Amino acid sequence: ERIGPQMEANRGQALITILALTVARVLQVCNFCLTNSRRNRDLESSSRMDDRSRETEEALRRDSESTSRTDNASHEEFDVLLSFRGPDTRNGFANCLYHRSRDVGIRVFLDNEELQVGKEIGGELLKVHEKSRIYIPIFSKGYANSSWCLREVALMVECTSTSDGKKEILPIFYDVEPNDVKLKTELYRKAIPKHKKKFGSDELKRWEKALVEVAHLKGWDLKGKG
User: Fold this and answer.
1) What's the pLDDT at 131?
2) Predicted TM-score (pTM) of this structure
3) Are strands 220-224 and 168-169 parallel, antiparallel or unpaired?
């Protein structure tokens, strides 16, 4: 049985709502602070959830689980692909977000660039990107030092641009500013040229274009508290 456009849209919106609630919970549990988030109202309201809103979250979780049984029709194997640079966030925010998302029924693929040394984005890893519904890059101070992470961002943009609105990128700016990712400061702008010898100028331009595009999307601006 095929999934209708309305059901697909409803499921996507429910998933985004669950993610907003999940990020809010992670902020509380893992001791992070929110700064000027472009999803500020969503997170502020969800951080004050009472029993009724918790029931809503549970209903959305059940909806996510029930609609997941139709995934063979839509060819979606993961709800979320989480991309991050291990040394920056592995033992903190990324780990909290991954486990909290799994707890509420979101199927997450945790793509740690440290585990992909020497690999190309192809084969099974390419399929994971193609079959994920939502991409969450966690932009951190060292993100642009990883060619793997930069290639992933470019692939996220490519996959969403050909998805007919069925895929979405929800960026998280962790201890960086959107302007850093937009290459308006030296943080990422100085890191990217280090990859030129191995990948060439054309590939670097593709990464830079993808970074700027994603940095303009609605996301969360977070500051760690240690």
Assistant:
1) 83
2) 0.73
3) unpaired
